[in-house]
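User: For my dataset I need records formatted as: sequence, then structure tokens, nothing else. Please produce one.
Assistant:
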Amino acid sequence: MGARSRPLWSRAAAWIYFLVLLLLLLIAIFLWKSGEILVRSDPPQHTRWAAMLAGEGKDMDRSEAALALFRDGRFDSLILSGPRTFKTHHESEFSSEFLISKGFPQDRLFQLPHEAVSTSTEAIILIQQARLLGIDTLLILTSNYHSARARRIFRRFAHGNPVIRIAASESYFDPKAWWNYRETRVLWTMEWLKTLNTAWELRKEHPKMETGGTILLEPNPRAIRAPVSVPFSTDSIPAAAVQDSLKMGPYFAR
């Protein structure tokens, strides 16, 4: 009996070793390709409007990419998404100053200061503005490591109105060698945690809701008008994200 059981155990142990090795191989392949999975960029195509998301780095990578895309004729006008970074200043102010100093036409820049603290709430604001402006296609410009998650959120929220396209700017994050530096390892970890959280938030449909009024961007970026109450369907937008957006109050185009 013992002699017969040993071959069975040997075969079982061999299968266990094989499965463990296979699992380790799959994990290694995932880790090797995981940086590239975070990056998505749509093929070049001209659009009238683009929007640069908040989160500009100290080297102004997104602004540099926006300038290059504008010079290449990828878009005509740019909305600068600007969360408040200091007590009375918004990120869009610094991006606008930098772009203008590099020769970007001032009349093609539109600042959109806001209080969003996540990509989801930022998507609500920008999609709402796009619909107010009658924009049928919106090019979203963001950093490479953030591009796949932003693409997923914006396309889910927009439901094709407007059509969302993504342009991923280069950054210090190398998707093919993210493990080489501590900063990129930390960034990789944070972005994957946010990706998993986004998948959880978008896992099911949510009832339709209406948001409050907002300010319509004008051809003159300095024009400020009275708030316009505009119904905005937020079906499939996580309830928490909608509630955050409702607390922001009006947004001013400057």
